[in-house]
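Hi, here's the filled form for the chain we discussed.

Project: internal
Contact: R.S.
Residues: 224
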Amino acid sequence: MNEAIVQAVEGFVTTPWVYVVLFAIAALDGFFPVVPSETLVITLGVFAAATGDPSLPLVILVAALGAFTGDHISYAVGRTSGKKIFARLTPGSRTHKAYTRVGTLLEERGGLVLVVARYIPGGRTAATLTTGATGFPRRSFTRYDAVAASTWAVYSACLGYLGGAAFEDEPLLGVALGLGLAFSITVLHEGVRMVRARSARKAADVRQEPEAHRTADAHQKVSA
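And the returned structure, exactly as it came back:
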């Protein structure tokens, strides 16, 4: 059974269609993050190491081009409809907070946010949409996004390749490792995000406490 699965997958990854699918999913993930494209890129990296197909350089190139294309579609949507989309979000919801946070970071750190957000499933969409909605210069966006898409593709594909190299005789174990790595990275990013959000809330509460005390003291003085 396992051998049949491996043969079926190997039959697909040796065809040119694998690059078409990779480009489509990487592009789609840029503006409609249904399934993180990292999973596919890492998996193809595993097979590149374990079986020799597909070509690792082509996987990196196609993944980068797909991500670059998808990010620009997201940017264009944000440029034309970003404000309307943001207005429809429920205040206080997770998505609303993500867009607000990205907007603040863009003001503080500029295009570097795009590079960091590319490694966060879901965060990249919020970043590119918000970048377009805030009127961030297209030329600067293209420059930063080229760096983000390229480094992301190299990182994801090579991560899978290193995992696959350790399981040349057991491709399924290599794929399982690749999927596990992709899932672990997603969980790690989400964990870091939650910790940082909790720390930010605590810092905000600490700043608000002195202000509340000052307000209370002022009311007491007025009453006296």
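Let me know if anything looks off before we file it.
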